Amino acid sequence: MIEVNELVKQYGDFVAVKGISFNAQPGQVTGFLGPNGAGKTTTLRMLTGFMPPTAGSAKVAGFDVFDQSMEVRKRVGYLPESVPLYRDMTAVQYLMYIGEIRGIKHRRERAYEVLRRVGLSHRGDSLIRTLSKGMRQRVGLAQALIHDPEVLILDEPTIGLDPIQVLELRDLISELRQKHTVLFSTHILSEAEQVCDKVVIIQQGAIIAQGTPTELRATLERGGRVLVRANAPVEDLSEALGTLPSVLHTEIVTEGLVVTPKTTDHDPRPEVARRIIERGWSLIELRPLAVNLEEIFLELTRAQKRAEVVEAPPSETQSETSEAEVQE
Amino acid sequence: MRIIFAVYKRELGYYFRSPIAYAVAFALMLLLGLLFSGSVGQAVEFNLQAQQFQQQPITASQLISNVPTVLVFLLFLVAPLITMRLIAEENREGTLEVLMTLPMNESAFIIGKFLAAWTYYTIILLLTLIYYVMLSTISVPDAGQAFTIYLGAWLYGGAVIAVSMIWSAVTEDQIVAAFLGAATVLVLYLTEIGAFWASQQEITAGASDFIREIGLTAHYHSTLLQGIIRAEDIVYFILMIVGALFITTRLVEIRRWRA
């Protein structure tokens, strides 16, 4: 169980995490999704007790990450992004070392047990420096599992793996949900969609959406861009729909016309349909563009930009920077 | 305790797996061996002539002090070499990130590392006892003085290792850590020069003594090396070790807060 409440991390003038709040429930896999540099690693590091938050609080397995750091650390298994390991040790030696610091009994048996769990027991006595990237990733995961923690925090666990290893690791993560609260970060959206029960989307240090993949899709179907096809010249269609009060702008694409609403909490589809019927055309197709998380993510990024434009039209230089940030 | 021991075992194991530890030990033993055989040869020649000219012969006790004297001088190179990677490497490789999310204190981690480096040095120091054994077959060296010489060299080594370890926590770059460590230890070794300079400057009389007392040599060369055990010297070395380990621990904590 992870409860994050208004968590802030500031490095000098730079605010990496801007007061985020979310929960991760036991028996679920929570995906922490965002582009590179969004503040994912910083947040995970605060949750593991590696570094203290600037403000706000977080509870992991019922303990405060700042005031009860040792209790949290006992109950968390953590795989950092770079998968740091001692290359001069064998996998089993390394796991036994971590196990000894964690105060685990029967370390050798336990080391082999977790290696079996991650499918690497046949290479337990190989020096870590001789293992491939995917195998090292699994040793890192074994390290996070060695004390059978309540909470597992994995930072980009599938990065740098080949497609088969990625699938294996995703299966393993799915399996782990039965006994552990799993929080893992990724910038690959399809991964989050396949594995997660819940997705938290973070961008520039702020949460821009959270919910189950299905919920997120529903939100966007409500306020996201829609594709319109009707038996009318697309230019006329564009002209007719562009003047609707809830529509920000329209865009002609090969398939038809893409309509962008002004806000995400207002579904433009009824108005669009009505206008088309009023003009005496026949509506052929009216569907939301976001069908997978990848598109949801892009939509949310666009929606955020749109909100900025609608709320306060910024000066030219400002809008350039905001665009650069969004692209980033 | 369990954690200190776990870290200690791993680090000591690393010394015995890594080529640099063997290279350092080999170079030291070669140098000290040549020095010892040279000084014994010279002493034998001198003593033959000394009888003729009625001079004081060189005693076995004096010979015993030769090797540790050179060893503690060379520590300005050796200590940084054996401590430079201790924390810098964990920092650079990111292994520190995992360790700092385990339920353990930074201090246990630092103490374990320090004890491993000190043990490595102790092994080298014990190997040089072979010269004492060799001398005692041809002469009768002063066992009491030999004890204080080695006790001093051991404490001296601990202090110097702890001090150069600080730099390993300051920078991720092992070479930089080694250079800064060597410079620090050398300065502490050469405080006699500073003390002499201060005594020439007609500033307050205490300044010269103060500079001298900070240095390492004032607590080894003129006391323990001569067979004199003073409580203040023992306290000095222990304080150096404890103080340096405290600073190192704080530095690791600070890095984490800023990370």
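qc> Residues 2-258 of chain B form one domain.
qc> done
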